Amino acid sequence: MGLNIVMLGAPGAGKGTQAERFAQARALPKISTGDILRRGVKEQLPVALLAKEKMDRGDLVDDDTMVTIVRDRLAQPDTDVGFILDGFPRTVSQARVLDTIIDERGKGPLLVVDIVVPQDELARRLSGRRICSACGANAEPADDADSKCRRCGGTPVFRADDTEAVVLERLRVYARATKPLVEYYRERPTFCAVNGSQAQAQVALELSTMVDAVAVRSGVVAVEARGAGGG
Questions:
Q1: Average pLDDT over residues 77-105
Q2: Which of the two residues, 65 and 151, has the higher pLDDT score?
Q3: Domains in the chain, ordered, with CATH?
């Protein structure tokens, strides 16, 4: 069995960055529903455009849309070795459907990682966050407005959904709808929490160490990291 990971954390916790690092280190596909939706917006797909309107208001995209996206993606053969989910599930109802999908496809247990960051730190991070205008990747904290995306060379811009009002609304939505996921997963032996307030390299190291420990306890064969600190 491969590593099947769900990355949890409030907006601004760094789960996307850490999921990318871990996926590269372990040669696993990173499945980001946000990336999938942004590609759909570029291609002017109606379902993606409707979802974008909701995201720009700080709302969650409806369950049916998200479940369809994830179900189709997990059916692709590259996920047979494992995967990292970033941005799904965001509600307990989505988590229950994900459990069903995993069982149906015989993919083995889910390892759940919650990246924990205090709310005042989340608000500070979100207010200055940038993404690449070309590929949608998060800009690193050290990047400035004139730097180029490290993934594709595009220009970092402020996110449309990171205005002060939307930031506060997104954190409220998370607390109301997404945070209960922690309670849903917490009692599982495959759950672990990581301190996301540390430097990125330290978060990556702690995440890698904890995932490997949980994988061993769960009988999952972990994919060996290719670099120091698991990412």
A1: 91
A2: 65
A3: 3-118+164-225 (3.40.50.300)
- Per-residue pLDDT at 208 exceeds 90: yes
Is there a catalytic annotation at residue 159?
yes
Look up the pTM and report it. Answer: 0.74
Phi-psi region of 82 (alpha: psi -120 to 50; beta: other; left: phi over 0): left
**How far apart, in whole angstroms, are the C-alpha atoms of residue 151 and residue 90?**
26
Q: Of 15, 30, 38, 73, which residue is the catalytic one?
A: 15
Question: Cα–Cα distances in Å, from 160 out to 10, 56, 57, 133, 167?
Answer: 18, 6, 9, 11, 10
Q: What is the pLDDT of residues 122-178, one digit of tens each?
A: 888 787 666 777 776 666 544 444 577 777 878 776 655 556 677 788 888 888 877
What is the C-alpha to C-alpha distance for residues 56 and 140, in angstroms, rounded to an integer?
22
Look at residue 221 in the predicted model and tell me its pLDDT. 59
CA distance 176 to 212: 31
The DSSP symbol for 110 reads P
- 15 in active site: yes
Cβ burial of 76 (10 Å; 0-12, 13-18, 19+) is exposed
Residue 129 known to be catalytic: yes
The active-site residue, picked from 38, 125, 129, 130, is 129
